[in-house]
Amino acid sequence: MTNHSRGASKPSRPSSPHPPRRRTGPARPPVEDPARLAALETLRAVRQRDAYANLVLPQLLRERRITGRDAALATELTYGTSRAQGLLDAVIESCSDRPLSEVDGSALDALRLGAYQLLRTRIPSHAAVASTVDLVRAERGSGIAGFVNAVLRRVAAQDEAAWVDELAPDPETDPVGNLAFTHAHPRWIAQAFAEALGSREEPLKRALEADDARPAVHLVARPGEVSADELAAITGGDVAPYSPYGVHLEAGAGDPGDLEPVRERLAHVQDEGSQLCALALTRAPIEGTDDRWLDLCAGPGGKAALLAALVGLEGGELIAVEKAPHRAELVRKLTSGLPVTVHVADGLETDFVEGAFDRVLVDAPCTGLGALRRRPEARWRRQPADVGTLTKLQRELLTEALRLVRPGGVVAYVVCSPHLSETVGVVTDVAARTGAEVLDTREFFPGVPDLGEGPHVQLWPHLHGTDAMFCLVLRRPV
Ligand SMILES: C[S@@+](CC[C@H](N)C(=O)[O-])C[C@H]1O[C@@H](n2cnc3c(N)ncnc32)[C@H](O)[C@@H]1O
């Protein structure tokens, strides 16, 4: 949402900021603005120590007992600022008398917070500038506050659409760059989306737009414990359109961890796309035994909990492997009471015998480009170089899964990314080398529209309301 009308003629920009003036008088008392202070401190933690906004902020809110409207404002400002960082930085840089690399880190956090309020919220400009400058003055004094004030006044001179017009690459010569800038994504990520969608135009625009919006929280009802209808009634949510166990909560509905069914392990938070991919593994027909399932990359355990509940209903068991001990512990917690054995091990070096399992899930470590909407700062942190390292591991894990599944059994390869190197690239290569049979995975997503030509399934936020999950089911030949 912009606070000025779009398409307004561009106002001329105020003159360059004055050099910072030193404040000589006594320091001002601290400001009473818990929401913006929490947002600013979270942004700082993300910048300084690579923290995750969605872990730092809830903890700060709890510690400081920030609730209600203040908590909602802090959340909106923190996540919104983090998502839009690249766009905000381009605007800030064009309003500053120095390159961003020379701007003091804490001033930059405040500038991003202020620019976000100016360009993407309905907060009146004077309030956005004054509240941000007050925070900086209380923490860092008048010199830096003066600089922040001057830059933000220049940012406020026009709305987001006008800034995009002025700063985005030309849509004629660089359509992907233009859309990436407009929807606050790094160019390489927009390019990866374009390649997966086979489009640089309307579908890409819709994908980036949906990826830039605040997503609803999805819950999964534990099979055998509670139905999606019952869970929706208890939580006030809506039954999900595709997953028989899914419920969608309203965006901004508060901390789902506080919901009684979640506390009592009748449900857990899980994107509907993740539910569908786990279910796809269970829906592929197999002949013979079907009671030993393996989750080769299980942490933190969302899919393991759903799979274990399902195999448990049939008297079977799930073996969950996770390399990182702290994530294995999360699997243990989430699956307690279910027929699961958790192994802390490298999935490439387990001591399971070949062909020990009927079904295997490889939910491989990936760039996470498909879940950027749920991880506010991730899009600016991920680098193109991450892809190569991950695809090597993905190929190895899928190959190992095909060794551990019995002849006739099935493997689901899942990543939370639409990047073609991590998706089609990996499965094509491994299927060719192992001789595994590729199944038309669309059949295991009944009722889900817009699945393309197969055989794989690529879900999208703009088409399915899910994260951009990829899934392909393969069968080990008999
Ligand atoms: C995409 S996450 C899995 C998400 C999980 N299936 C869920 O639904 O909650 C990938 C996991 O694989 C783990 N991992 C990475 N390398 C691994 C390896 N060589 N063997 C086993 N697990 C590994 C990571 O620590 C991470 O927890």
TrEMBL record:
Active site: C416 (nucleophile)
Every SAM-dependent MTase RsmB/NOP-type domain range: 193-477
Keywords, ordered alphabetically: Methyltransferase, RNA-binding, S-adenosyl-L-methionine, Transferase
Keyword check for DNA damage: no
GO molecular function, one term: RNA binding
Region (Disordered): 1-33
One Pfam assignment: NusB
The keyword tRNA-binding belongs to this UniProt entry's keyword annotation: no
Domain of life from the UniProt record: Bacteria
A Gene Ontology biological process term: RNA methylation
Binding residues annotated for S-adenosyl-L-methionine, in chain numbering: C297, A298, G299, P300, G301, G302, K303, E322, D346, D363
Family: Belongs to the class I-like SAM-binding methyltransferase superfamily. RsmB/NOP family.
Function: May act as RNA methyltransferase.
Protein name from the UniProt record: 16S rRNA (Cytosine967-C5)-methyltransferase
